[in-house]
Amino acid sequence: MKIDFLNRNVNEGFSGGERKRNEILQLAVLGAELAILDEIDSGLDVDALRDVAKAVNGLLTPNNSVLMITHYLRLLEFIKPTYIHIMENGRIVKTGDISIAEILEREGYKAISNT
Question: By its UniProt entry, which Gene3D superfamilies does this protein fall under (predicted)?
Answer without folding.
Answer: P-loop containing nucleotide triphosphate hydrolases
